[in-house]
Design a protein that fits this description.
heterodimer; A: mainly beta; four-stranded antiparallel beta sheet; 10% helix; B: 604 residues; alpha+beta; two-stranded antiparallel ribbon; 20 helices; 10 strands; 8% strand
Chain lengths: 407, 604
């Protein structure tokens, strides 16, 4: 038998317990919690833009994204062409005959056609490609039966006509070599296979990022997990060797990723991204013959800036276009080993890439340059004045983008 | 790729109404049969009464104790709620809107295993939207009727169990477990899901009568509710969940105003949305104060319930009912507006459950005196059936209610067992196949392996033909999968069928392109799959002959071409033309098109 007094005591105890629970909850809830972002490890993978330009025998080609860039299915990559000896760009993207939402990747070499491959998108998981040897008058097609990796150097063609393709990504990446035209391919190596070799182990291969040919040999770029190591590998007699690229001491703590490998008249130029302490630095490197490599000074990206485009400068050098968080863009060019990075007049906002044309002389400043700025359906070409101090509007190209057609 | 079906699609809605009508006729038949049965029983009862008058009065049946008040409240109120919910399920938007607008959003933020559970139920509904929607109407109407008409005894308890079982299904598959595994859980928005209270009520009704004989059951119910209210108070008080602020730091709406805002946007009478909008403004301005009031109110109600003392509990109950009604009107916005409202949300069932618990505590049924032995034993059910008109009515009515449940339950079970989607989805997306009766235009091309193939070489086989772009990024892979699925559906009959695609891209015409597509779609080992190509001139001639418009698109878009499929009989005649636009390209629409194609092939 529970007395009224006992009931009252139990009631008071109950109210007390509930009140204490509520108060404890509120107090505990207000204790400051450690910020998750403070403990987060910065990403070591450097976002690699596909916007770029390159030279073929017939002229200069560039690929840029247009449309609603915040919506992948309404971002359509375009293929612009400026024939040698003219100052007018035309849009050749129709030649790809498929949706280009995944991006375009270009390859060219002296005496070889311009190859434009389509990256996978939506339900398309392999990469069709088209090529032209006559400046876009006629096109042929080929196919890579897997999806090209997201890198401007995922496709390469040598002056001898041998094509290389880097497919898939990360540790699933494979290097393919064409065996018959540009439609059949065989696997040369894979990221896992390369990682299991001694040179690969020294790098700690975590992804393959670029391919190129050097005197008929295959060169593969990688992202290394070991700090301060640049992963440029060359196949020699069926085995892989790591190229001896020495980085400046301040970069020894950074993770290095090969952003591009481009064939030049004398060898290969590489652009390396070095991620350290949440910031990215760029270094160019050139093969010097006899197995040696030399590097450029370090180009440090401003804090919070992003890489918009990079590519060949039309000769031996490399350009890098970056944008700050406010949208201001900066263009830097390095002409070759032993040369400094040179800042060029800041290109107009929304410039997606720049294109360098054959030089009248060796000086970079004398080299004609166009900046291709895209907004929605309009691509504006800006030309750098001969004085190199400002950009003037040279051409406006309207592109008929069919929004929603890829949904 | 076309857009998915809209919830108001006329073909699906019309089929839904037709299904409801047909099943309604069956229900009418059941009612007629019940009427006849009651008439017969009444005649028997009258005859027995007149026989008894001649041979002496038969002994009276022992008086049944009245149904406990708490149980009656739970049974009738939740019976009415199930009935109301069943009628809500009859809204036109239910077949196509239930998953996309009700079930999927309820799973937002829940862990992946909850999505897996929800997807399992959603697949059945998506594949058979008409059958599932109609079945839900009758199951819920049936359970509602069952609870209303079966007052006591095993039939009544079974009705409670039916409510509990169906409620658990709805709670897990339809309400994503009431969102209890998702962040942002709060009593104000309906946590832990209205249907869980239906389940609790079903459980109470299913309990044996003796459970209601003392205040113990009421105490258990109220203490459970008290624990629930206190738990919800703690959750509501927890900082960092957005309820203490009417607005966010960036000036946006806080959690509660944002919820009210979204509810107020449902189509509904203006007066109701204006109430919700007014509360939204008030909470945006006084978020801290509103939350403090809610926390205190929930905690206080919970404490009074935990005491389980009638006087305190009565006060707590009054507060709970007022708070629930206020929440129902101002925050949950009644819950059943907007065309896909499935129930009045959580507050009404919660309040009803509290009331039932209180009545069970304060007015328990009289326990039979253990010292009194009944003189007349309980008669058998058959005896009672012919002796008691009330019992006969209850039994027949309960059987009718069970019949109504089965009118929905049997088609639902059949639909769940059928792995292929209802062809009505393809019809709604693309229209019905168009019958044709002319010779199929001839073609002579090469297949993906470079071997020549002509239509005439396929005489004696049924041909399913379409036009696919090997580098298409949207429709063509879907259509290819639909053809593959139709092949699988046909089983051994597929031996007499060739599934053929003709290249629809003038740029990519080499067999290598076709092989890449086949590998991508897993068609490279399908023996009766042929992907044909030829010169551009050859292809153009065939496109023209079959009315397929193929053109380059500017700006980096796909090649544009018509999505059409044909069925050609073994004599080489066109029999059906099917619009093959994949629409929303869901697994349900793909399966539905495959069924339609397989049916057309079988009929050729």
């Amino acid at each position: 038998m529970i007395t009224a007094q006992a009931r009252q005591r139990r009631l008071v105890a109950l109210i007390g317990v509930v009140t204490v629970s509520l108060v404890t909850t509120v107090v505990l809830g207000f204790v400051p919690r450690r910020s998750v972002s403070a403990a987060a490890t910065p990403s070591v993978s450097i976002p690699t833009p596909l916007s770029t330009s390159l030279q073929s025998d017939a002229g200069t080609w560039a690929t840029v994204p247009m449309g609603h860039l915040g919506q992948p299915r309404n971002t359509f990559w375009q293929l612009f062409f400026r024939p040698t000896g003219t100052a007018t760009w035309s849009n050749e993207v129709e030649a790809t005959a498929t949706a280009t939402n995944g991006g375009l990747e270009l390859a060219a070499a002296p005496g070889q056609p311009l190859v434009a491959a389509v990256r996978p998108t939506n339900l398309l998981h392999f990469s069709p490609l088209v090529y032209t040897a006559d400046g876009g008058h006629s096109w042929s097609d080929g196919v890579v039966s897997k999806g090209l990796a997201s890198s401007p150097s995922a496709l390469s063609i040598s002056s001898g006509g041998h094509a290389l393709a880097l497919v898939d990504g990360g540790l699933s990446a494979e290097v393919l070599a064409s065996t018959r035209g540009l439609s059949t391919w065989k696997i040369l190596t894979t990221a896992r296979r390369l990682a299991s070799t001694a040179p690969g182990d020294a790098c700690g291969v975590r992804s393959l990022t670029a391919v190129a040919s050097l005197d008929g040999a295959v060169v593969v770029g990688a992202g290394c997990s070991r700090a301060g190591v640049a992963g440029i590998f060359e196949e020699q007699g069926g085995s892989w060797e790591r190229e001896p690229v020495a980085l400046a001491r301040p970069l020894h703590q950074g993770r290095v990723e090969v952003l591009s490998l481009q064939q030049t008249a004398t060898g290969i130029a590489a652009l390396l991204g070095v991620a350290r302490q949440g910031e990215t630095s760029l270094v160019a490197a050139w093969s010097t013959g006899g197995g040696g490599w030399s590097t450029s000074p370090v180009l440090a990206e401003a804090s919070g800036s992003r890489l918009v485009s990079f590519g060949p400068d039309g000769a031996e050098g490399v350009f890098a276009l970056t944008a700050t968080s406010s949208g201001a863009e900066h263009l830097a060019v390095v002409a070759g080993a032993g040369q400094p990075w040179r800042q060029i007049a800041p290109p107009p906002r929304q410039t997606e890439t720049v294109a360098f044309f054959p030089a009248a002389g060796p000086a970079i400043d004398a080299r004609p340059v166009d900046a291709l700025a895209a907004q929605g359906r309009t691509m504006t070409v800006w030309a750098l004045t001969p004085s190199g101090t400002r950009w003037v509007k040279a051409q406006v190209v309207h592109v008929n983008i069919d929004y929603g057609s890829s949904s | 790729m076309g857009k998915g079906l809209t919830t108001g699609d006329s073909i699906v809605v019309s089929a839904f109404h037709t299904a409801l009508l047909h099943q309604g006729l069956i229900v009418l038949l059941l009612l007629a049969a019940a009427g006849v049965s009651l008439n017969v029983l009444h005649s028997i009862q009258l005859r027995r009464a007149s026989d008894g008058a001649g041979a002496g009065t038969p002994p009276p049946l022992p008086a049944q104790p009245p149904e406990p008040a708490g149980r009656r409240i739970a049974r009738i109120s939740f019976g009415l709620l199930w009935l109301f919910d069943g009628l809500l399920q009859g809204q036109s938007s239910m077949p196509l809107g239930m998953i996309s607008q009700v079930i999927k959003p309820s799973a937002d933020g829940s862990p992946s295993w909850v999505h897996d559970v929800v997807d399992a139920g959603a697949t059945i509904w998506n594949y058979h939207p008409v059958q599932a929607a109609a079945a839900t109407v009758w199951i819920q109407v049936g359970i509602g009727l069952w609870l209303l008409v079966a007052r006591r005894g095993a039939w009544s308890r079974l009705g409670g169990l039916a409510g509990l079982g169906w409620g658990l299904l709805v709670w897990s598959f339809g309400e994503s477990f009431g969102g209890i595994f998702a962040p942002g859980l709060t009593w104000l928005f309906g946590a832990p899901g209205g249907v869980i209270f239906y389940c609790a009520a079903g459980l109470l009704v299913a309990l044996p009568s003796r459970s209601w004989a003392t205040p113990r059951l009421g105490r258990i119910v109220l203490r459970a509710m008290g624990t629930f209210f206190v738990g919800m108070a703690v959750l509501q008080a927890w900082p960092g969940r957005g309820f203490w602020n009417g607005t966010t730091r960036s000036g946006g709406s806080g959690s509660l105003p944002a919820m009210v805002q979204s509810m107020a946007q449902s189509p509904q009478p203006h007066v109701f949305s204006s109430w919700a909008a007014s509360f939204e403004s008030f909470d945006a301005a006084h978020g801290w104060g509103v939350n403090l009031f809610v926390v205190i109110a929930l905690a206080a109600i919970g404490i009074t319930f935990l005491t389980a003392r009638p006087r305190l509990t009565r006060i707590g109950l009054a507060a709970a009912v007022v708070l629930c009604l206020a929440d129902w009107v101002l925050i949950e916005d009644f819950g059943f507006f907007g065309g896909v409202g499935t129930d009045p949300n959580s507050m009404i069932p919660l309040a009803l459950l509290c009331i039932a618990g209180y009545v069970a505590l304060a007015r328990p049924a009289l326990a039979p005196d253990p010292g009194v032995v009944p003189i007349v034993a309980e008669p058998a059910w058959g005896e009672r059936l012919v002796a008691s008109p009330g019992y006969a009515f209850q039994l027949v009515a309960a059987l009718v209610a069970i019949g109504v449940v089965l009118v929905g339950g049997i088609p639902m079970a059949l639909a769940a067992a059928n792995p292929n989607a209802d062809p009505i989805l393809a019809t709604a997306t693309d229209g019905a196949p168009t019958p044709l009766h002319n010779s199929a235009p001839a073609f002579s091309l090469v297949n993906q392996n470079g071997r020549p193939v002509s239509l005439s070489s396929l005489r004696g086989k049924t041909v399913a033909l379409t036009f696919l772009d090997p580098v298409c990024t949207s429709d063509c892979p879907v259509i290819a999968q639909e053809f593959h699925e139709a092949d699988t559906l046909l089983g051994s009959a597929a031996k007499g069928v060739e599934f053929i695609a003709i290249d629809a891209n003038p740029r990519y015409t080499s067999p290598d392109d076709l092989v890449a597509f086949d590998q991508q779609e897993g068609l490279n080992h399908v023996s009766n799959w042929l992907y044909l190509t030829g010169s551009k001139a050859q292809l153009q001639g065939i496109w023209d002959a079959y009315g397929i418009l193929v053109e380059y698109a500017a700006g980096g878009a796909m090649i544009a071409h018509g999505d059409t499929a044909y069925v050609i009989n073994p004599q080489g005649d066109l029999r059906d033309e099917l619009d093959a636009d994949p629409g929303g390209a869901t697994s349900a629409t793909k399966s539905s098109f495959a069924v339609t194609l397989a049916n057309a092939i079988t009929g050729a």
